[in-house]
Amino acid sequence: RRNKGRRLLKQVQSGGPYEVKWVEHHSQIEAFMNNLTNLHQSRWQGKGESGCFADPKFGKFLRQVAVQAIRCGRAHLMQLNYEGLPVAMQFGLRSDTTIFSYQVGVDTSSTAESPGVAMNMFLIHDGVQRGLT
Questions:
Q1: What residues have CB less than 8 Å from 117, skipping those under 6 apart?
Q2: Where are the alpha helices (DSSP H) in 1-133?
Q3: Closest by alpha carbon to 90, among 11, 25, 37, 36?
Q4: Using one digit for the tens of pLDDT, what is the confidence trace for 89-127?
């Protein structure tokens, strides 16, 4: 697992078919949330579950949180693309010392190898580089 994680991290950091996109402005929230919702719902509906975004109130709530988090510099919203398509997303919040991952979406049908692991390895490395836990 350690070797796989390191290999995936190197692939994400080197670019190639991967691209990391951060949401840094409120104008990017809607596209990010649409992609997060689609990935999250697809995975859960594939398991016969409704998924938390089945309730429109949940998506509305997260959009409102995202706007406020960006305003106060606490948003940690990341999208990992593979060959131009979103394959893993994290909706997180950041304090002065810690990243809190609240919601994720992963494309389990992607041709990318273990997109969720690739995203998590990148997020851990990025957090350490920022001095966060």
A1: 4, 5, 8
A2: 2-13, 29-46, 56-71, 115-129
A3: 36
A4: 999 999 999 999 999 999 989 998 999 999 999 999 999
88: its two tokens: 């893993």
Q: Are 106 and 123 in contact (CB under 8 A)?
A: no
Short-list 118, 114, 70, CA closest to 91: 70
pLDDT-based confidence at residue 81 (cuts at 50, 70, 90): very high
As a whole number of angstroms, the distance between CA 63 and CA 26 comes to: 10
Check: pTM over 0.85? Answer yes or no: yes
Of 48, 62, 122, 46, which Cα lies nearest the Cα of 88? 122
Q: How far is CA 86 from CA 16, 24, 126, 130, in A?
A: 14, 17, 19, 24
Structure tokens at 43: 């995975």
